[in-house]
Here is the input.
Amino acid sequence: MEHHVNETGIRIPAWAERVADSLGAGPHVVVSGISVSGNIHAGNLREVLVAEAVANALRQRGEKVRFIFHADTIDPLRKIAPGIPQSYEEYIGHSLSHIPDPEGCHVSYAEHFLVPFEEALREMEMDIEVLRSHDLYERGVYTGVTSEAIEHTEELRGILQDVTNRKMPEHWSPYLPRASSGKLTGMRVLEHLPEQSSVVFADEDGWEDSADYSRGEGKLGWRVELAARWKALGVTFEPFGKDHTSRGGSTDTADRMAREVFHFPVPGRYEYEWIGLKGRGDMSSSRGIVLLPKDLLEIMPPDAVRRIILGRDPARRFDIDLEGGFPRFMDEYRAEAGEPYVPFAHLVTVAQTVGEDVDAAARMLRRGGYGEATRDMDKLAQDLRYARNWAGEWAPESMRLGLLAPAASQEAASRLDDEQRAYLREVSARLGAEMDGDTVQDVLYTTAIERGLKPKRAFAAVYRVLLGKSSGPKAGPFIAGLTLDQVTERFSL
Ligand SMILES: [Zn+2]
Here is the structure.
């Protein structure tokens, strides 16, 4: 990947530098806005990472940058996401921040989905401010722009009709007051009282009520809010996915609203493409194709997550391969990061062989010729965890290993012929505790040749009694990583 590394060691991809170059002088406010109506998946993370890369490029240029994650917590629930009880139908139209957590573990529905994402951002050590829209409304951050929007209701309606080619309802208002039922949708705004920063409205049953928009008693409709938010937060850059930038989409309406109603310059933009999961399709909470950032952080370090999610160019569609292609991705990542090289596939073998025993892993790596990787034992422990988690969750069957228990090994051996059993007995007698991988490999091979046994059948016997498979990782280093007892116990047939 084309990139530069700045003084703090942060990698700035070339595309992000180009985007930053196209933005004017600062100070800059870089924002990424995401709905919290369901799981915030790795596809959503792509948007935040695009924004982060541009924010870093601006910082590198010496600009002052405020980097914001705007969580749409006040938005009304629109539909029931997969896994949410049907009884939640009653909350449709209510603010996500005002709906109970479906699993009861957080203070609201919004927090249930937002908190795990926030934790992932923290784990990635992202220099980002997380803002909750319900809190911004309650603190009065949107009071000015809300008043302005209501005053310009007719112009906003005109823009919406023009751009979307849809006729807006007669009583359309840019503002959605919250009724005493908790519902935001379906109210009719009757009067604006700018001095009291409130509106009078008729609720679902026609009863009159009022809402104070300086205290979060309602919100702007989503399309108007987008433009209003740019002004209220002073946004200078925001990335968007193609769902927003299509013709007649929310950026088309927001651009005109910003220029014609709010008199605020349209922020710089970057259109990113979606990512999919190889073999499963585009990521989508509503279709249940969900890969969470924390799933990724279980199998690779944060900077590898950045690399795999952004890809070479986030303007292009890309399928993440967490299965067969993943070891190669990790090898490329480590090589680029200048880390001591151990092929990821080998780490996966080691991790599955030694379990949680880091010292045993270090011995196995030293014997395999990867001693450099054992200098930082904390890092090694972490890398082994990544490898083990990957093996458990994503590895193709051919890479999944488990040393057979002695009884299962006996059972597997009963399917070998006499020649193969005799071969294993002889290998067992020749092996020594301090042999390294190459030496063991040599013993395995020469013993087969001397006995007139075809190497293919010899090695098949080895894999059969150790792993219950007909093939596996390179046998010499694998056996060298086991204790001599573990091997002789299974070879002395
Ligand atoms: Zn929860």
About this structure: The two ends are 52 Å apart (CA to CA).
